[in-house]
Amino acid sequence: MKKKTRYVILGLLRDEAMTGYEIKNCIDRRMSFFWQESYGQIYPELNAMQNDGLLDAREDQQSGNRVKFRYTITEKGRQVFNDWMTEECEKDTVRSEAFLKFFLANDSNQADVIHHLEKFHQQNRERLESYEMFMKSFQGLEDMHNHKYILKMLELGIRQQHLYCDWSSDYIDELKNND
To answer: Which residues belong to any copy of the Transcription regulator PadR N-terminal domain (predicted)?
Structure first.
């Protein structure tokens, strides 16, 4: 199984140069319903990709004395990304600690389950609001047709967050009303 971190980075850098922090922030704000990466995955991969000639880095001293690097994709990086896009997708896996706890909750304290459900609901409500704000940022753009794939994935994320919020709200009501 190939590590996908490099392809996430290459894909994001196709549109604009970014720092490692900006890459992480973009993943967290826009892709978290289907993808996560940690700083511990991103920064070592940025270094490896630079060594492999997939990225260029230049110093970017925007914040105080701390040196940041802004990364841009190279032609070789574009080719590696394009080659990966033609490959078949591997089987998807979903890992959710919340889902695991809900699945295994039979003998658990109901108050704990409700607490986890309420937290799950809150997190998904916040994600939903974030995705809806991101979607609104596209409204009125003259080049919306250039963003059709992002918009469709964003639509999926919004639908998913609605589903999670509705499901968790219903489940909380069910548990509270069965006492």
So the answer is: 9-81
